[in-house]
Amino acid sequence: YYGDVPLVTKTFATPSEANLPRDPEAKVKEFILQELNEIADKLPEQNEIQSGGHITRGAAYALKARLELFMEDYANALKSAKKVIDMTCFELYPDYLGIWLAENNSSNKEIILSVQCVRDLYSHDIWQHNLPAAEGGWSSVNISKNLVDTYEMDNGKPITDPSSGYNEEKQFEKRDPRFALTVLHPGQSFNGRIYNTLDETVNGKKNPDFWSEAAAPRTGLSMKKYLKVVPSSEFGNCDANIPVIRLAEVYLTYAEAAEKVGTAEEKKLALDLINLIRGRVNHVKATALTEDLVRRERRVELCFEGLWYYDVKRWNLGPTELGQPLYGTAYGSVNNTTGEITWNKKDGQLQSIKVADRTFTTDRNYLFMLLQATMEANPNMTQTQ
After folding, report:
1. Crossing angle for the helix pair 247-261 and 57-70, nearest 10 degrees?
2. Rounded Cα distance, 363 and 385, in Å
3. In the 8-state DSSP scheme, what is residue 122?
4. pLDDT means over runs of 10, the chain (385 residues)
5. What one-character-per-residue DSSP string does 223-284 give?
6. What is the SS3 assignment for 104?
7. Contact, 89 vs 109, CB < 8 A?
8. pTM of structure
């Protein structure tokens, strides 16, 4: 987030001793890699169920592979990821939505590292934040048109391919199966009703899910991933572990590194790993390992898992992904019995909900500024440039 930061490797006797200047980013990364190298093989080769949530060898190598990938050290990322892939204690969980449910904490061997949660003691409120307003939630995570457009058609072709069969009148249909498992969109069946963010009223009553209402998604599109419908009394008591690293990410790390520097054999394995991920949801197999495929797979498979910002940064996609207007779904009206959508058009074109204008400056916006309080507390600190 900040580039150069102080590298602290000891305990200070006084606060003034802690007023360190920034160390080079490369030095910090090298320290992290050195720590992981030193500890990895001293840790047990176990999944999280076996370790009881403690740090394992797989977690060390998976984190190492992630950092090496972000550093564009593809050769070592390939090696680190392969060490995890070769561990027999991990396996893809067969149910994509089930990865994030508490009832599967004790059977999910895909999770390499997670934040461990305990009901009534160390729980979280993700249900409150992300359930639809009609279920009492806040629809906190909104989904953009940009993300929706990333999902392939069910034939494996991107919607930009003229032969894909994409029809904007039926834009939510015949997509990669992960789309309906991740995105809660207008016209979708949810909790015994038709989800509707496009009409101000439903059956003559004010619609709390209408996109401009306080607890509704401003884009008209909400997140289905992580969700479970529960009574409001349970909103703040979610005990589903929050994945930090899972096996699918390691597969995609290996695939991206192999696409860059891999041998023919490594590229074949990379494609096989991608198809294992796609196969979990019965999506059509990919036939060629390409940069576009890897990037698309990372975005749809790992969305809302905290990695996309870093992908945008290292791929230098800020101007296109973060510097363009943010749009949601198009305006329209939902049939609350069938889910069919009638889209509003202007001059024959769908008009999308515009949420915000955004600007992006490449040499500044990839890094965060420091708080003024941080600058004032440490006379040796310099502001992010």
Report:
1. 40
2. 8
3. B
4. 94 93 96 97 96 96 98 98 98 97 95 95 94 96 97 98 97 98 97 97 96 97 94 94 96 98 98 98 98 98 95 94 95 97 95 95 85 93 90
5. E-TT-----GGGTT-B---EEEEEHHHHHHHHHHHHHHH--HHHHHHHHHHHHHHHHHTTPP
6. helix
7. yes
8. 0.95
